[in-house]
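Q: Got a minute? One more chain.
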Amino acid sequence: MVRIAGIDLPKNKKVEIALTYIYGIGLPLAKQIVSNAKINSEKKIQDLDDKEIGNIRSIIEKHYQVEGDLRKFESLNIKRLIEIGSYRGKRHRLNLPVRGQRTRTNAKTLKKQKKNIYNGITHIKSTFNNTIVNITDINGNTIAWASAGQVGFKGAKKATPFAAQTTAEKAGKQALENGMRQTEIRINGPGSGRETAIRALQALGLKITTIKDITPIPHNGCRPPKRRRLQIECLESFNQNPTNQYGKFIIYPLNKGQGITLGNALRRIMLAELEGLAISSVRISGVNHEFTTVEGVREDVLDILLNLKQIIFKSDLDEPQFIRLKVSGPSIVTASDLELPTRLELVDPRQYIATIDNNTNLEMEMKIEKGKGYDLVNKKTGENLTESLKVDAVYMPIRKVMFHVKEQYNGESLLFEKLILEIITNGSITPKEAIIKASDIFIKMLEPLKEIAIESEEENKDNSQEEKKLHQVPIEELHLSVRAYNCLKRAQIFSVADLLDYSEEDLLEIKNFGYKSAEEVMQALQNYLGITLPKTKNKT
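A: Always. Here it is, folded:
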């Protein structure tokens, strides 16, 4: 190991490269040292003899300041520059003019002058998407300024109380550095960070003299504007093929938060509540189960069932329909070969079903039902599996629904939201019809809520307290005969609450308690408390 200037140099490195491991020696200086020592630049440390190593040591110790000595010198020089307030090193590192080159037009070269302002005014502008804190003197000159975006918050996080707190702390610290100790507060805007910003300024030690809300009154106190009518426009519509219809719609204006609420509701209703037609079962002549083949038909039964699932129907009928297929080969069988009843239409008559290779006859009967969503084979009951083959029925007329919300701003204030819906149907209904039907279902779902009578908590509390007091009435208050009273006592019935656990038949089962006593108790409950016991009720 070769050690020079207190550093162990790597053996496998060239001499001029290894010398750069010493603090204070760069590559140009290392090349100069190697040249002065008359050493081949291609030599490595491990190839040096003792004489060459000695020459390098003597050159470095005699002419250059390195490692510990250099570090000590630099440290003392930095302390000296700090004591005299020199900007030399700092300004060179920041690529700024050194002393003697500063100009009034270059703001970066001017040292910031601290102001000594005791009183000030803090303007807090808090909106639904940002918080801005501007601290000025009494003449309106800005002393400190900060915003939620400036301190690192993005998107919706700029409107949070924590963002307002961080913003106020940054502006408040700048104001304190300039000597401010008390301030007036002027608030503008309805955002959620108003109070948080005020508390943050108080926590810094600023004394708040007054708080004034200067948020403008909407519409200058006049009557509110008319409610904007909801509009819907079709932005784009085309048919990719008979079984894929695309539509893009925009709904506006919506208040904040209503876009995602309405979009999610319409999407779920369109996917889950809209009705459609599908084949639910198939009977094929000569076939008892789906894991077989039909003689003369190229496809097996499973492939035929899968092809039948792709057929899409249109109809306004609610009852199940039966359709038939009878084709002789050789032939290519498509949906157009089906024998359909009236008021039942095919969306794509070209839908492929099977291929018959010879003179075989293919006969089928299919059951078409209306439903929602999808119906799996293993969930279907009530039909004889030996007579027909079950099909996983997909009733949904909607293939896909996507939505997103756009916000319309006027400067920093949110005007309204726009809901953009993209709908792809299977062709049995159009995207426009899907929106109309989904909206109608949504309205009908909410309609019953208008007629629900909701009692207040106080009324429920009063009723429950009255009922509780009523049940705690002792049986002595019923003024029963001695015989009836003693029978009830022996049966551990001491209050009306205990008596309500019995029916008229249960009372007759009490020992020595006859029809007359039971009639007396029933009459007393009706006269004094308005309570009627049931004739038959098992004791709980």
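A: Residues 275-395 form a domain with the RNA Polymerase Alpha Subunit; Chain A, domain 2 fold (CATH 2.170.120.12).
Q: Perfect, thanks.
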